[in-house]
Structure formats: structure tokens, C-alpha cells
Amino acid sequence: MSKKESTMNIKTFNSSEDFEILVGQDDRSNDYLTFKIASQKDIWFHVSGFPGSHVVLSSGDTVPGAASIKEAAGLAAYFSKMRNAGKVSVSYCMIKNVSKARHADPGTVNIRCSKTIKVIPKLI
Description:
Layout: H1 3-7, E1 10-14, E2 20-24, H2 27-37, E3 43-47, E4 55-58, H3 66-78, E5 88-94, E6 98-99, E7 110-111, E8 115-119
Antiparallel strand pairs: 1-2, 2-4, 3-4, 3-5, 5-8, 6-7
């Protein structure tokens, strides 16, 4: 692990299907996770329309099942301003569909081709 990686505030979880799920904890770590750590085929999650963590389901060439997608979305909801809400809408897409506008603030992204899932905020 590089010195820069060790200073990033990123939490790691494992899904019930044994996929790694990474969660950024602030704007800098969100950017680092999304644009430096994640690969193009990984799946990115974020609560729709509210501040929160970027969550990456590391899947590589394997397609994760519905359980892992729901668990990653639950983490995105939990690590957001919507933590105490009932069901929360979480957008998700492949990392290759996440981009950053030039000079955009840390943690700010543009997404395309996203899907939405409604989940209860939850740790796994």
C-alpha cells in the first residue's frame, strides 16, 4: 500500500457472495476510490440526490448477484445523509459510466446509464 493510499479514509466490507465492497468516507477518498482504485468493470453506488459516500463493488470480470448489489446499495444509503430514512433510492452503474468534470469539486461526479434500487440503509 502506498503512503497516499494509507492516508485515504476507505472502509472495506465483504458481501455475502464474497465480493469486496469499498466505501469512501470523505470527498478526497471518494475521488480516490472512484478514479484511482476502482476498475472499469466495477460497480459504483451513490444515494440519489443527497450527500454521501461513493461505494464500489469490486467485481472485475464476474457479474455479482442481486444480494451483493443490494448489500452495496445498503452501505451507500447507510454512509449518507439518508442513514435514518426508511427506504432510500441508490443509483448505480459501472465505473466506466462515472466521470468528473474538469475543475469540479472533490467528490462531485457525473453518471450515465445508471439504474436505481430502493434499499434500507444497512451495514453488512
